[in-house]
Amino acid sequence: MSELTPELDEAVSFDDKGLVCAVAQQHDSGEVLMVAWMNREALAETLASGQVCYWSRSRGKLWRKGETSGQTQKLVELRVDCDGDTLLLRVDQKGVACHTGRRSCFYRAVAADGSLTEVLPVTADPDELYGA
Amino acid sequence: MSELTPELDEAVSFDDKGLVCAVAQQHDSGEVLMVAWMNREALAETLASGQVCYWSRSRGKLWRKGETSGQTQKLVELRVDCDGDTLLLRVDQKGVACHTGRRSCFYRAVAADGSLTEVLPVTADPDELYGA
Fold this sequence. Notes:
Two copies of one chain form a homodimer. By secondary structure, chain A is of the alpha+beta class. Chain A has a domain at 6-97: Ubiquitin-like (UB roll), CATH 3.10.20. Helix content of chain A is 16%, strand content 33%. Chain A has helices at residues 6-11, 40-49, 126-130, and strands spanning 20-26, 32-38, 53-56, 61-64, 73-80, 86-93, 108-110, 116-118. In chain A, strands 2-1-6-5 form a four-stranded mixed beta sheet, covered by helices on one side. Chain A has a two-stranded antiparallel ribbon with strand order 3-4. Chain A is globular, with a radius of gyration of 15 Å. Chains A and B meet through α1, β1, β2, β5 and β7 of A and α1, β1, β2, β5 and β7 of B.
């Protein structure tokens, strides 16, 4: 669909900037890959194409995930939370989700003393994904 | 700790309201349970107590998850994403995460035609959790 259906538009609570938070999860392993934002257009395009499209807040435009890097997210299932202000995207992630070349953006673990440790390896070269 | 360490405070990008987005995931099954928000105080309390504490935007106060309902979240691992604006809380959820009595807040699936279907059962009576 090119626009959201009335049922879906009513179920999703876009914020005062017209955005909704979206969590991407690998559908079979359960890995939480990343969190980003969608506007109505990004959500409609994602449902129409079956490929995840976000709204880039920093660039102020649609962000077709993987368009440059090839690290696309195929939508497997879309869920809406109880109050409609967050989406869960169950996806099939090709390669890596993180621009650092790691599978997930959540690669730093925080110990009880507040120190951080990297717990996921770099498995793709960012220079190759995005050009040096 | 009662305050964040400088290392952690630098790693986490709190927004202009002093908040950071937090995704709660059941540590063993991988279920994404809910998404909520934390301020510095909530994050520090979570790390100090080992029990997840959010910041309630609607009530404007600390939200010790499960304080009323008994449906607590024990912190197993805390992760920070690449740009520091989202936390991943790997938790052990007691009972249900959702105020509707469902295990996860993400209980509505969206079909390709935009229609919504409930895909998770109610397993706890909200009236019993919160008082009728």
